[in-house]
Amino acid sequence: MPFLELDTSLPANRLPPALAQELCAAGAEILGKPAERVNVTVRSGLPMVVSGSAEPCAQLLVSSIGVVGSAEQNREHSARLFDFLTAKLGLGPERIVIRFFPLEPWQIGKNRTVMTFL
User: Fold this and answer.
1) 2 has catalytic annotation
2) Tens of pLDDT, residues 67-85
3) Of the candidates 67, 91, 64, 58, which has an alpha carbon nearest to the alpha carbon of residue 4?
4) Active-site entry in 2, 11, 102, 105
5) Fewest CB atoms less than 10 Å from the CB: which of 48, 77, 92, 108?
6) Rounded (5°) CA angle 21-68-82
7) 2-117 has which CATH code?
């Protein structure tokens, strides 16, 4: 069950209208998970600084069970996610940061229990 949280200083009117849905589909493909399990949040218009600069930027947090736990996995995910984000946001790769967090099944609650028991 991946979670993709995109924060950006770009105003909402500069984002593609279906960005959340497109990020869901891209995340599912890149992480090898069904889209029905992917959760996406997009927050725009935030005051942000990346690499010491307040120029337009974005940060993506990717957390999931089993698919973001190694440098090798994340190197591949990073390249593909950067391709998606630079194309959709119109930002250079130096203005985007991606953070990966591996999750354990007991850290995600769903349907009144945790993923361990589903």
Assistant:
1) yes
2) 999 999 999 999 999 999 9
3) 64
4) 2
5) 92
6) 50
7) 3.30.429.10
